[in-house]
Amino acid sequence: MNIHVINGPNLNMLGIREPEIYGKETYRDLVYKISEHAKTHNLTVTFTQSNHEGVLIDAIQNCYYEKVDALIINPAAYTHYSIAIRDALKILDIPIIEVHLSDIMNREPYRKNNMISDCVTFTISGKGTEGYIEAMDYLITVTNKVETDGEPELNQV
Ligand SMILES: O=C1C[C@@](O)(C(=O)O)C[C@@H](O)[C@@H]1O
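Output (structure tokens, whole complex):
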């Protein structure tokens, strides 16, 4: 399985940026953690981090062209107001897991506004960097289930 991981604005500043909210691990630590987990489970992961909305949209569209199997995305602040990112996610017909390091539903009221939650497979919020690992584990479980269960209606004689 080949998974793309997209992180939005200011997530490159993890470890420096409000560590009491987002933790002490850096973006580099996050990429390492995800990559190590991917290695042990035979997954291919690629990454995009950008502070620019258009770059994030290009990365989402690229998942379509590159035939990526699943997307893990933390659009950061764009979660709360980007119709353009919402529209781009609607293009994809693959599992999309939305991850937030912090618990966005229990912070400032404006973070409750979520433009993408109804376009994603599910949302993991408030689990720090472990949220990305949980998203990968979910994708592994779902993929194994599809492989094990097969497509019974096609196999029936
Ligand atoms: O930049 C971020 C990070 C965030 O997506 C998170 O991971 O907790 C939550 C957003 O509200 C915020 O703007």
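The helical segments are 19-22, 27-40, 53-65, 83-89, 130-149, 152-155.
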